[in-house]
Structures are given as structure tokens and as C-alpha cells.
């Protein structure tokens, strides 16, 4: 007997970047796929941006002239942190055999290392062997981070502070605008990595979702993620594809190359035309800034995760889905 379930979800994580040579970065899903699986939710990952590092010679750390200047870093993503690692390697190679001393990270004041999110904080410790400002770890975007920076630097108004800010080519001027009024801060902001939308994004998304649909068709559609037995067959099925965006740059890149209505029609035509399945597209995101980017492109928003981590996102999606049952 067929179960009385009619909705099957697939969450598509439009997250992560790949390098120009096609390699996808390590830890691309940051535990998101594992967390979805732990909650018996179906998810797949599609990288939608690609990157290329720039200006590796811009990392200059040395004792500055009196009065003493405190040196700090602003790292708004793991990508910016990776730039620091590469810049340090580049500097060591450049100094090798020249008699020039390489960059000394001991000049960095850990209380002035500001990061967005717990993942960047953890990688800062693990990969750079560097502590960071603990108050900044809970910030979910650049706007929240600047509030922490301003508060900390205002309390140290007697110190001269130099903050090095390696940023994405798609980053706005949020940090620069917020710090412009603080007289004790010198901000050195520059493009650390060029980020562009992956040219074959649409084809990749269609192929990934299509592959998932074909596999589900082979094993019968089930409603396990809604609390039904995994072996129960659903009739009158609605397939909900929930596109999850992680940054404004991801939203903008997606909207440049993908028309949502066209994507829906393509999926139906290629994979669902002869199946008793109705397709619904949803858009979810991490944080208010990404939500704003979606709304600026006139896209409805289903769920906004309040924090940039896997557990919170999944919990909020589960709560929202239960409210709608």
C-alpha cells in the first residue's frame, strides 16, 4: 500500500570554489553534507565559483617606525586565510639565497586578527598556528565583523594599528567604509583572489540534480526524510529542489548564468517528463547579506540560516519543514 507522503526534498549546496585548473578545494562542504546525512536529509554539493590568487607579494610584516604600530589581519573567509599561507610561502621562496629576512608573523597581534565564522577561526589556528580575536568568531559576515573591529579598535585608541585586509575581487567596501572614521587605524586592503562564476555552472547543476533524480527513480521515490519508512513508496509526489546559497557573490554569479525558470523547465523536460512528479524550486541561504542579494534579484527566500555553520542550517530547515506539515 502506498504511503500518504507527497514531498521529497533534495538540498543543493551551491558552495565552494574550484581553482582555474578545475581542482575543487579541500573541505569544500565544511561538514554540510555530513550534517544533512546525519539528519537523514538528501543533499549534494555543486561548486559555482572559481578563483585565482593575486598579489602574493603584498604581505609585508615588519617593525614599523615609532610610535609602535600594532599589526593585525582581517580574514573574511577561509580563502583569505589560504592567501596568507601562500603569501608566506611566496615570501620565503623570494628571500631564499638573497640575504633578505622573510616575513615574521610574530609581529602580528593575535587580538587584532579578526575572522568571520568558526571555520576560519579553526583554520587560523591549525594552518597558521595563530590565535584570533575570540569576539570575531561568531560574526557571520563582513558587516557583523566590522562592528567587532570598530569596538576593539576604539578601546585601543592610543595604539596605532595597521590592519591587512586580503579580500575577494567581488567584495564590497563594507570594511573600508566602517573603518574610515577611526584615526588610529591604517587599513591596507587589496585584491587577494579573483573570483568568477564557473562558466559551465548551469550544465553542472542540471547534471548533478539529474543524476540524483535518475538514481531515485531506480530505487523508487521515498519519504524517509519526512519521517516515513525509507521503503515506503510515495504517490502524488512533489520533488522540492532547495538551492542553498552561501554568499552574495554566489548569488550574483548564479543569476548571471542561470535563469531559474529555464532551469526548472530543463530538469522537467530531461528527467521528469514521464514521471508522476511535480517539481518545485526553493531558495535558501546563509545570513541576511546573502538573503538581501537573493531578494535584489527578485528571488523568493525559503529559509535563512542565522549562523554560518552546518548544524544551525540543518536544524532551521528541519524546524521549518515540520511547521509546514
Automatic annotation (TrEMBL):
Gene3D superfamilies: 3.40.50.10090. It comes from the Eukaryota. One of its GO terms (cellular component) is cytosol. InterPro entries: 4pyrrol_syn_uPrphyn_synt_sf, 4pyrrol_synth_uPrphyn_synth, UROS/Hem4. SUPFAM superfamilies: HemD-like (SSF69618). GO terms for molecular function: uroporphyrinogen-III synthase activity. GO terms for biological process: protoporphyrinogen IX biosynthetic process; uroporphyrinogen III biosynthetic process. Residues 34-314 form the Tetrapyrrole biosynthesis uroporphyrinogen III synthase domain. It holds the Pfam family HEM4. This is Uroporphyrinogen-III synthase. It comes from Aceria tosichella (wheat curl mite). The gene is UROS.
Amino acid at each position: 500500500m502506498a504511503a500518504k507522503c507527497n514531498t521529497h526534498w533534495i538540498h543543493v549546496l551551491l558552495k565552494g570554489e574550484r581553482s582555474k585548473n578545475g581542482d575543487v578545494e579541500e573541505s569544500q562542504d565544511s561538514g554540510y553534507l555530513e550534517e544533512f546525512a546525519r539528519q537523514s536529509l538528501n543533499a549534494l554539493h555543486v561548486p559555482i565559483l572559481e578563483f585565482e590568487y593575486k598579489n602574493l607579494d603584498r604581505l609585508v610584516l615588519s617593525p614599523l617606525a615609532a610610535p609602535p604600530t600594532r599589526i593585525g589581519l582581517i580574514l573574511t573567509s577561509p580563502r583569505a586565510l589560504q592567501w596568507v599561507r601562500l603569501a608566506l610561502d611566496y615570501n620565503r621562496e623570494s628571500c631564499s639565497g638573497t640575504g633578505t629576512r622573510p616575513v615574521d608573523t610574530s609581529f602580528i597581534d593575535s587580538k587584532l586578527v579578526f575572522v568571520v565564522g568558526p571555520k576560519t577561526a579553526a583554520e587560523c589556528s591549525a594552518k597558521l598556528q595563530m590565535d584570533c580575536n575570540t569576539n570575531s568568531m561568531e560574526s557571520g559576515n563582513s558587516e557583523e565583523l566590522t562592528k567587532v573591529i570598530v569596538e576593539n579598535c576604539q578601546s585601543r585608541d592610543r595604539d596605532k594599528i595597521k590592519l591587512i585586509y586580503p579580500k575577494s575581487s567581488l567584495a564590497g567596501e563594507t570594511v573600508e567604509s566602517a573603518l574610515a572614521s577611526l584615526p588610529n587605524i591604517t587599513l591596507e586592503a587589496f585584491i587577494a583572489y579573483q573570483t568568477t562564476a564557473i562558466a559551465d555552472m548551469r550544465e553542472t547543476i542540471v547534471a548533478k540534480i539529474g543524476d540524483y533524480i535518475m538514481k531515485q527513480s531506480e530505487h523508487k521515490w521515498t519519504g524517509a526524510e519526512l519521517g516515513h519508512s525509507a521503503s515506503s513508496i510515495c504517490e502524488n509526489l512533489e520533488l522540492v529542489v532547495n538551492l542553498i546559497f552561501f554568499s552574495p557573490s554566489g548569488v550574483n554569479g548564479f543569476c548571471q548564468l542561470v535563469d531559474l525558470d529555464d532551469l526548472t523547465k530543463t530538469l522537467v523536460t530531461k528527467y521528469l517528463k514521464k514521471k508522476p512528479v511535480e517539481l518545485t524550486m526553493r531558495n535558501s541561504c546563509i545570513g541576511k547579506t546573502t538573503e538581501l542579494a537573493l531578494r535584489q534579484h527578485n528571488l523568493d527566500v525559503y529559509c535563512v540560516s542565522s549562523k554560518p555553520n552546518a548544524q544551525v542550517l540543518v536544524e532551521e530547515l528541519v524546524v521549518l519543514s515540520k511547521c509546514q506539515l
